[in-house]
């Protein structure tokens, strides 16, 4: 277990590079935009299915 932790820390120090502040900001904007788009798409599909189900049950009851 200790060997695994030691090798993981060593790999983090020697092989992992962090993006610059500018790259991080750009990626954050991209993630935010796609999250908003996905949320709006999910809301739209949910609203559509809700209206379809409501229409279906209104026709069955009447």
For this entry, give a set of tags.
0% strand; 62 residues; mainly alpha; elongated; single chain
Q: State the major sheet.
A: none
What do the pLDDT scores average to?
95
Order of helices and strands: HH
Discrete helix count? 2
* Helix/strand structural class: mainly alpha
User: What's the N-to-C terminus distance?
Assistant: 68 Å
What does this molecule look like?
It is a single chain. The radius of gyration is 24 Å and the shape is elongated. The protein has one domain. It starts with a helix and ends with a helix. The chain has two helices and no strands. The model has no long low-confidence stretch (mean pLDDT 95). Helix content is 89%, strand content 0%. The chain has helices at 2-15, 21-61. The protein is mostly helical.
